[in-house]
């Protein structure tokens, strides 16, 4: 398992409720891919969302996001953390 | 005070020790601007570093990063969190 940071662009105007609902949709099915989405942060003004997860691969992260209708624009492994 | 996510590109090959040292340099002076850098995540392969902070403004975050020699390429307020 490894940590991943994924980034979504084009989410301008996202609300707290929409972020919560999107995150919950991921949580509801994440175990199918042994992914866990830990946190998400959103900037409604630039339309950027960052999701931190633990997962077996970047592809597993992306498969969950695709199934819940919000494919990530970038998925980066982040093996280093402080 | 607000949350910010800042992003650094071009950090290919960054090591755990370099990330730790850069983060510590920020911590050492962050109080000058009432910033607190909470976490940082790095992808040495793409050369991307993400820093999560609490700060009075994006400019305050950037001033700390500039003084420690690693100006951020993007600083986003992230008012929404899950």
CATH H-tier superfamily of chain A: ORF SCO4226, nickel-binding ferredoxin-like monomer
Q: Which blocks of ≥5 consecutive residues of chain A have pLDDT under 50?
A: none
Order of helix and strand elements from N to C terminus of chain A? EHEEHEE
> What proportion strand of chain A?
35-45%
Chains forming the largest contact: A-B, 26 and 26 residues
Mean pLDDT of chain A: 97
Described by strand count, sense and barrel closure, the largest sheet of chain A is:
4 strands, antiparallel
Account of the 3D structure:
- Two copies of one chain form a homodimer.
- Helices cover 29% and strands 35% of the residues of chain A.
- With 82 residues, chain A is of the alpha+beta class.
- Chain A has a single domain, classed as Alpha-Beta Plaits, CATH 3.30.70.
- A four-stranded antiparallel β-sheet of chain A has the order 2-3-1-4, covered by helices on one side.
- The longest helix of chain A has 14 residues, at 16-29.
- The first copy, chain A, is globular and about 35 Å long.
- In chain A, 38% of the residues are buried.
- The A-B interface holds A 3, 5, 14-16, 19-20, 23, 39-46, 48, 50, 52, 76-82 and B 3, 5, 14-16, 19-20, 23, 39-46, 48, 50, 52, 76-82.
- Strand 2 (36-43) of chain A pairs antiparallel with strand 5 of chain B, so a sheet runs across the interface.
- Chains A, B: InterPro entries: SCO4226, SCO4226-like.
- Chains A, B: It comes from Streptomyces ossamyceticus.
């Amino acid at each position: 398992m490894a940590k991943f940071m994924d980034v979504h662009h084009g989410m301008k105007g996202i609300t707290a409720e929409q972020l919560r609902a999107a995150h919950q949709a991921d949580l509801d099915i994440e175990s199918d891919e042994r992914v866990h989405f830990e946190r998400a942060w959103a900037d409604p003004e630039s339309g950027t969302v960052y999701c931190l997860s633990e997962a077996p691969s970047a592809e597993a992260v992306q498969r969950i996001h695709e199934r819940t209708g919000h494919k990530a624009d970038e998925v980066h492994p982040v093996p280093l953390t402080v």
